[in-house]
Amino acid sequence: MEKSRKVRRIVNKATMYFLYALLIVQCISTLIPLVWMVFTAGKGYVEYYDNPFLWPKKWRFENFELAFKNIKLQVREGKKVLEYGVLDMAGTSVIYAFLSSGWGTMWTALVAYVLAKYKFKGGEFIYMLGIIIWITPIIGSTPSAMLVKKALGIYDNLVLLVLTNVSTAFAGFNFLLLYGSFKRLPWSYAEAAFMDGAGHFTVLLKVFLPMMMPTCMVLFVLGFLGAWNDYGTFLVWLPSSPNLAYGVYKFQLDMKSFGGNICQVMAGFAMISVPTAVLYLCSQKLIVDKFQVGGLKG
Amino acid sequence: MEMQTVQRKKLRQDVVKKNVFVWSILFYPMLCFAVFYVYVNINSFIMAFQKTDIYGNSVWFGFGNFKTFIKMIVEDGGILRISFKNSIVYYLFNLCLEIPLGLIFSYLLYKKLPGSSVIRGIAMLPQVISALVVTLLFKNFMDNAIPAVMEQIFHKDNFPSLLSNPKYSFGTIIFYSIWTGFSSSLIVYSNAMNGVDPDVMHSAHIDGVDSMWQELFYIILPLIFGTIQTYLLTGFTSILMNAGPLAAFFEAYAPEETYMVGYYYLSRILRGNEHEYNMLAAGGLLMTLVAAPCTWGLKKLLDKFVPEV
Amino acid sequence: MKKSVALLLAGLTSVTALASCGGKVVNTYDENKTQIYVTIFNGGAGTTWIEKIRDEFNAKETEYEVILDYGKPSAGTIIEEIELDNISADCYFTSSINFQKGIYRDYFEDLSDVLDMEVDGAGNGKVKDKMKNYNNWQAMASKNGEGCYIVPYLDAIMGLVYDHDLFVEKEYLSFATAADEAALSAQGISYEEKTEYGTTYLIYKSATGKTNYAAGDKILTAGKDGKFGTYDDGQPKSEAEFDNMINLIVNGNDQAKSFIYSGMYDHYNNTQAHAIAAQYVGPDMFNNMLAFNTGGQEIEMYDGSYAAVELNEGYKVFQSKGIYEGLRFINKYMNSSSVHPSSMNIGSYSHTDAQNDFILSYKNSTGYPAMLVEGLWWENEAKAMFAEVENAGRGYGQVNYRYMLLPAIEGQKGIDGNGNGTVFTVSDTGGIVVVKQEDAEKLAKIKEFLAMTLTDEVMKNFTKDTGIMRPYDYDMSEEDLSGMSKFARNAWEIYSDEENIELVRFGVTRYAQPIFFTTDMHNTYIPITNNNQISDSYLRVLRNVGGAEAAMGTMSYDSVKWDAFLAEAKRQGFYK
User: How far is C530 from chain A (nearest CA, A)?
Assistant: First the structure.
């Protein structure tokens, strides 16, 4: 009896460590692209072509120099042509990522709070609508969206575009995540505050939002990372204020259509990854500790 | 009597106050929704019932586009049929392999085995670099490295690329998706597990729960089912929208054997096949009609397993 | 931790403030002039030819100036930009011609009067007179047969590229023998005999006329054009000779690979199937087949019968012997174990990957790919890789690349109806369009500028600069040619030999067919299927169904589908 228990324990431990080894391998393998990107950026083209996996024989730092010099975009504005260099585009990236992630997270949190904590006519409907929107593929709406955005002066205006980009604040993963989290917070906090004469806004701002702040911060940072790498929005809606991801995207396209040099492209990618990597490392503890997803019951 | 009137009045005032608060928050997003979603998409709704000619005139086409879409699904060997089949297979792998593996891995992190904090720290690092870099590396690996290794070690000449040979392509895509898909779920699940009350764990151990599987199945999973539910539902809703990494690997020209519904839509748009847009819009509507109630039903079903807080 | 995030963000924001993200002005325009924006397809190579015209134009105009922009806009993108009211230029020089939707929706200007201009001076003929095959072009570029909304820009043939010097060295080509001596003398070529390892070669000394040999070169056989010292010397003439060459490549000492092509875009090979089909039925008949109407003439069918095909049963053209021969040819040579494995096995193997492997093939003494399936533009496209191998003497324009002609197929009509000549397909026939203008005066100026780009002189400079042809009649002097890459010169020789070479401008004929551009007929011409599915690439279907014979039984279009296409085209007012 005791023996079989011992065997079982050993098997158990062995399984556990085997799986853990698998996890370590998986984890390390996800780091390889980062390393690969950096050393490919330091290679010559033929060297890359001969073997894309070897460490560079001699580091070619000029790739970074070239990428820095060549990642630029010209935009026509009236009769002038403006040229945006890497630093200009990085500026736009920061503003865009900051604004769009901050504004988006804020509205998602507010809507999630209201829908999770208040029973009112239409609440259930909006929640359902959110799910439907989430799963509905939309085809061919770009022309009419363009019409509307041009008419309202939103097209090619970064700030307005971000400010009006909350039309689906009640749909999607972030919404459901916050919705679930608010749902789990007991309403008794609010009742106590109401007793003390607090209004609805006070309860939201003083009681619930502070409790949800870490989650919001996590979503903000993740949103920031996503927005930093977003080039699609700029391609279609903001052609006159290029961000860095758009610049690198164009650079990469040009390189590709002219028989591009992948090493310089990688140098470009490495450059735009640095700020996000730093941001991630700084906020890592927050994300790792506070990134929580609750249920959707309700 | 007077007391009741006062109370009723106060009650009514409360309701008004509450509604004012609720709608003052919802007003702006709903306005944006009305303009930028409903108004903008009415066009694509109408498109589903129309047909466009070379002059740009749209004429009423009734359910013709719907019929075409359904015919394409029913057609033996048709690309849409392959796409639906693949989408479901892709989802099942996500459901049966990725989520369980993610849970097991997270459990190991939760157990704080040596090095687990480092792993948690780097788990999400790949998210900071462009997906293009990751796919390019993987492509190189599958197309060049593996065939070269096979040739050198096993003297197998002409070893196929697992990524692009139609026979293995879809399997490789699934593997890639699972292998690179853990990142944030590792953090989320293990955080949820950290929220499990240690006392509950302790008393379970006294009751004889001693293996990893028992701990996982009987104690942890039921307690964190809320989190799992969210992932299950996210996976389910993305069955039809998911294009996987196909566009990153093959642009608009993936092997037909690997098509998924989401990629089918994406590839048609990438190629600018405008003739098909009306039919695609009809398909979108049709899929929503089927998927929305299913999602809702699944959510209600899963709700039953979520523990009361 | 939160503090550090906040600090970091604050830091980033202040960097932003410093950078001000405004962009700097790099080019100011003349405030007193109206700008004409011209976007020009930049195939990677020279654009100096048009810069000269721009400067000329801007110098003489007091109220207008042309601003050039370089890019690769496709017809689809341009039309989409117009529909989104997001158009960035007035005039586009592109590599595509599928503007039909835009033409029928009145997005572009009718440029007929540009084609009527005498740009090379009065009395020297109109532009349309020097256009290659004006009628065909006009049918494609018109609206219901009226007007001409696209002006031809460039012409890029597609074929099999090989390294001529390597093929001579490895003796993959055939050498002239004593039997050729009379013909050589008749052509005024003097030579001497030289024996190496028991084989006697004829060594070139000099010639009274023009040849592409240098003194000391081994003379090759005359090739399909029957002349020595031209673009096709030493190349196989018949399919049997072609087989022999492939055999030498694949089974010789080097164990090389016959072909290399992009596995991702393996529909490049479709062009070779079309060329063989056109060689088999004759180019004119092939154009008829693209229009789904054999014009009352009977064609040979796959089952051995003869039949005339009319539009209302147009799908029957796919059962012709010519179609079969095209499919058979690419299946035999491109779907084979002697093809480079990356082309066969790697679906993500891009055209630039194939170009790079081809360029670097000199580094391997065995197993190298011998021929690349590519278009005329490939040398320009691969400039980055050429730059890397410049030190090895293999840089841009240094290697003696040539096109390998397709061999004659048994039973073919050829370009003269007697089984002779070679067909090349033009894969990109580019077009120039002008976006609808509100200001008539500005439009006139744009047309004036266009006219300046259509003179013989400009065409010559264009070809000199880019190595790419324009679909007009113009001559290149020896001096012009000497500045071009060896490959471009070879292509020019092919292009100019109208007696032995005929170009099939596949796209021009295809996009002239309303049944094609008004319906959702698949982009791919021959509708062979695998699992009922038409693929972009014939090769993929051939691979899956097991060859051309099997593929002939899988044609997707039948009378039901065809009637639906026709009805759809008729609904929109065509074929009435």
Answer: 28
Q: Which residues from A are below 8 Å from B248, CB to CB?
A: none
Helices first, then strands: H and E counts in chain B: 17, 2
Amino acid at C373: V
pTM, full prediction: 0.83
Rounded Cα gap, residues C360 and C342, in angstroms: 14
Both tokens of C542, joined, read: 């051939």
Instruction: List subunits contacting chain B, requiring 3 or more Cβ pairs under 8 Å.
Output: A, C
Specify whether the CB–CB gap between C148 and C112 falls below 8 A. yes
Q: What is the DSSP letter of A114?
A: H
Q: Which residue is associated with the tokens 């033409």?
A: C103
Q: Does C568 touch chain A (CB under 8 A)?
A: no
List the chains bordering chain C where 3 or more Cβ pairs fall under 8 Å. A, B
Architecture in CATH for domain B64-303 = Orthogonal Bundle (1.10)
C27-44 pLDDT, tens digit each: 667 888 999 999 988 755
CA distances from C263 to C333, C340, C350, C503, C539 (A): 15, 10, 6, 26, 10
Provide the Cα torsion C536, C539, C542, C544; round to 10°. -80
| Cα C373–chain centre separation | 11
CB contacts of C261 in chain B (<8 Å) are none
Query: Distance between CA atoms of C479 and A125, rounded to whole angstroms?
Result: 78
The per-residue DSSP string of B195-215 comes to TS-HHHHHHHHHTT--SHHHI
Q: What percent helix, strand, coil does chain A show, rounded to 5?
A: 70, 5, 25
Taking alpha carbons only, the member of C160, C102, C198, C219 closest to residue C375 is C160
Residue-wise burial string across C481-495, b where 16 or more C-beta atoms lie within 10 A, e elsewhere = eeebbbbbbbbbbbb
CA distance C8 to chain A (A): 7
Could you list the pLDDT tens digit for every one of the 309 residues in chain B?
566 788 888 888 888 999 999 999 999 999 999 999 998 888 778 888 988 888 888 888 899 999 989 988 887 767 888 999 999 999 999 999 999 999 999 999 998 888 888 888 888 777 777 776 777 778 777 877 777 778 777 776 667 778 877 788 899 999 998 888 887 788 888 888 888 888 888 888 888 887 888 888 888 998 888 888 888 888 888 888 888 888 878 777 788 889 999 898 888 777 766 677 788 888 888 888 888 888 888 888 988 887 765
Asked whether C81 and C422 are in contact (CB, 8 A), the reply is no
CB-based contact B48:B281 (threshold 8 Å): yes
Residues near C84 by Cβ (< 8 Å), separated by ≥ 6?
A142, A143, A146
Chain B within 8 Å of C1 (Cβ-Cβ)? no
Place of tokens 């604004």: A99
Burial zone of C18 (CB within 10 Å; 0-12 exposed, 13-18 middle, 19+ buried) = exposed
Report the alpha-carbon distance of residue C149 to residue C85 in Å, rounded.
Answer: 20
Pairwise CA distance, residues C407 & C195, whole Å: 29
Instruction: Return the CATH fold of C34-155+428-499.
Output: D-Maltodextrin-Binding Protein; domain 2 (3.40.190)
- Hey, is the C-beta of C571 within 8 angstroms of any chain B C-beta? yes
What gap in Å lies between CA A111 and CA A120, rounded to an integer? 13
Residue owning tokens 């585009």: A89
- The answer, for A45 touching chain B at a CB cutoff of 8 Å, is no
CB atoms within 10 A of CB A279: 21
Query: C36: helix, coil or strand?
Result: strand
Q: At which residue do the structure tokens 């019929």 appear?
A: B67
d(CA A212, CA B234): 22
**Residue ranges matching CATH 3.40.190.10 in chain C:** 34-155+428-499
CA C240 → CA A89, C332, C430, distances in Å?
60, 13, 36
Closest among B144, B128, B131 to B248, alpha carbons compared? B131
